[in-house]
Specification:
The chain has about 400 residues and is α+β, with helices and mostly antiparallel strands. It is built from 10 helices and 16 strands. It has an 8-stranded antiparallel β-sheet with strand order 5-6-16-8-12-13-14-11, with no helix packed on it. A 5-stranded antiparallel β-sheet has the order 4-7-15-9-10. It comes from Tetrahymena thermophila (strain SB210).
């Protein structure tokens, strides 16, 4: 039950001045009481008072400087910087971009993280914990106690404040645990990027590839007559075409049916290991499909080497795709091609960090010719899998 009458300062009662503050100092400055009015403050010469507003005891939005007793004072700004690696705009931008590629579950996670960010920015979590150890509710109860005299209130305040100073080590340990523990569980930017890549990889392995299993345009690959090509085993598994060299060899295969020059094709190709020598993937004309694809390059991309003749023109990204494939294991690539417009694009997949294209001045697909998807395996045993082959309405790599 709240007090019906406000407490009046006994020292300045002739002015009928209400008591407004509690002095939280361990030792009371000379001439001051625990409860103070505005005139008490004006009369005091002390410059180091720790004051808690009586009206503000229940307003849980601020931190009182130097309270509760701690060995090291609270640095709220430092705590925020420690746990806020991203600002809210970056989180929104990240999730808005990711939302277009994945399912509704990520949208829910976005809203949760933004909510957490808002709570941290407005100090809600920390201030709630702060009020737990500050005991302002207990101070308020003493002040509002209707059956206590002013002297009794003074004594209870004195006892509580002394107790809090005795708990200084405990208070400090509690605050330290808040600072060290990531209460908010907000991921940093590198974690968000890693999360995105993992989700996209999983989606592409399951939903994306399965969705187009029944619409694969390339139904089979044929061994050509070049070198050890007959030693490349061709298997079909769940709609995917696997190329399995029986040993380290040089060989080449091509699609059973030619590519329609008027349509945009998309191929997604997987490597089981990084090429130890090189692999060429491109589109060879009918009369030359039994010839070594790597003879001239130009109409193919090479893995395992860097060569200006093999689709070496970078059109998107910062690092040429040939260099990326040379320096690291690129497990999947995506190819989009429209023969009638002489457009042949290739990128790492699903990240698409670099998009290369065929140099328009080095080779031109001939309108009167038929072309076949062609894969050359040179001096190695790397297994290759055609995960998807379909017709698309527009280029998506640019």
């Amino acid at each position: 039950m709240e007090r019906q009458n406000q407490l009046v300062c006994q020292r300045h009662q002739f002015q009928k001045n209400n008591l407004q503050f509690i002095c939280m100092n361990k030792d009371l400055p000379e001439g001051l009481s625990r409860l103070l009015c505005q005139y008490c403050l004006e009369d005091s010469n002390s410059q180091n008072l720790i004051l808690a507003s009586i009206d503000g005891l229940k307003i849980n939005t601020k931190i009182l400087n130097q309270w509760p007793p701690l060995h090291q004072q609270i640095n709220l700004k430092g705590i925020q910087q420690k746990h806020l690696n991203l600002d809210q705009e970056q989180i929104v931008d990240f999730y808005d971009n990711l939302k277009n590629q994945i399912c509704e579950m990520i949208e829910k996670q976005k809203k949760l993280d933004i909510k957490l960010h808002y709570e941290i920015s407005n100090n809600q979590d920390f201030i709630q914990k702060y009020y737990e150890i500050s005991d302002f509710n207990q101070f308020s109860k003493i002040i509002e106690h209707t059956n206590l005299s002013l002297q009794q209130i003074e004594q209870q305040l004195e006892d509580l404040i002394k107790l809090k100073y005795q708990q200084k080590d405990q208070n400090q340990s509690f605050v330290n645990s808040l600072c060290e523990k990531n209460l908010y569980n907000v991921v940093d930017q590198s974690e968000l990027v890693r999360l995105k890549e993992e989700i996209l990889n999983k989606l592409q392995q399951f939903s994306y590839f399965q969705k187009f299993q029944q619409s694969d345009i390339v139904q089979n690959m044929i061994q050509c007559n070049y070198a050890d090509s007959q030693q490349i085993k061709i298997e079909k598994n769940n709609g995917r075409i696997q190329l399995i060299p029986s040993r380290t060899l040089i060989g080449q295969v091509y699609s059973e049916q030619p590519i329609n020059q008027d349509l945009i094709y998309e191929f997604i190709i997987n490597f089981k290991q990084k090429p130890t020598n090189y692999i060429c993937i491109g589109f060879e004309e009918e009369s030359l499909k039994n010839r070594y694809l790597g003879s001239y390059g130009r109409n193919s991309f090479i893995f395992g080497q860097t060569n200006d003749l093999f689709c070496n023109e970078l059109v998107k990204g910062n690092t040429n795709l040939q260099d990326i494939c040379q320096n690291e294991f690129v497990e999947n690539v995506i190819i989009q091609v429209l023969l009638k417009e002489n457009k042949f694009y290739i990128a790492d997949y699903p990240q698409k960090r670099a998009v290369n294209c065929m140099n328009q001045n080095q080779y031109k697909f001939k309108r009167e010719e038929q072309y076949y998807l062609t894969i050359l395996i040179y001096d190695q045993s790397t297994q290759i899998e055609i995960l998807s082959s379909r017709i698309i309405s527009n280029f998506t790599l640019l």
